[in-house]
Amino acid sequence: MKVVRTVAEDLRTPWGLAPLPDGDLLVSSRDEGTITRIDGRTGRKTEVGSVPGVAPAGEGGLMGLALSPSYASDHMVYAYFTTDSDNRIARMLYDEKRPAGEQLGAPDTVFKGIPKGTNHNGGRIAFGPDKMLYVGTGETYATELAQDKKSTGGKILRLTPEGEPAPGNPFGSPVHTYGHRNVQGLAWDSRQRLFASEFGQDTWDELNHIKPGDNYGWPDAEGTSDDAKYHDPITQWHTDEASPSGIAYAEGSIWMAGLRGQRLWRVPLRGTEASAEPQAFLKGEYGRLRTVVSAGGDKLWLVTSETDGRGSPGDGDDRILELKVS
């Protein structure tokens, strides 16, 4: 793995990243509530617009971004964000022909009522190979929510693009899996299998293979458990080595960005199991790492997170890096 180049610098609390069809990037600012377009070649930044209603505080704000599966025709951008009352998902028309800063249409809320808190707000969204919207949520320190299948906190949700429970969901509700503490990484492998990263409390962070309807244990289990009713992680890390946010799949491995761990983990896969011990890259070189997204083939985009209030930002922070992996 090597860093090919720095794509952009001087970003403020970057969180979500959505590659556009032409190679440019949309990036959200958690604390400023704005979306910025990054020229994929020059790194030039153009503010697209602000998302109304964002109420940043603690780990909440404007977080995950995803393009509509029909983006080529509808130009819709989906965003996960915290308001004064909840976490929610809205979609907005992105009109590149309008003046900079005014290119986002009014938000159309497709799903609301996800519990909010100072911390553990989840925030990752991604459209899967089935064109359904997958959502990682947190239990907001109310640990009992994770095991409550009627709550959307501490879950992975699966929705239609309009925000309805997706056909085939295991409980006839938005809930896809439960028993999660705080999910911020979602990615599919080449065989359309879903994986997710999860923050532990004090002991074990996790990388999980996601199976519809399964219980991932929190708060009764953190990491591997002896209880067969809980789905064990593929692998686990001490929290000071990982604290994982985004994940991506490339070249037969899951790549996982570590915040507290300040490193990028590679987990080689054989099916839904790790085929070798995880490998760490970039340890301490760029500080906290928030988001990693496939750029196609053997390339990844990596977003740092030194300006999120828990890092030690230096000149140029935060950054988007282009990586070449193998």
From TrEMBL:
Coiled coil: none annotated. Residues 304-326 are annotated as: Disordered. Residues 11-310 form the Glucose/Sorbosone dehydrogenase domain. Residues 316-326 have a biased composition (Basic and acidic residues). Signal peptide: none annotated. It holds the Pfam family GSDH. It comes from the Bacteria. PANTHER family: HEDGEHOG-INTERACTING PROTEIN, HIPL1 PROTEIN. This is Glucose/Sorbosone dehydrogenase domain-containing protein.
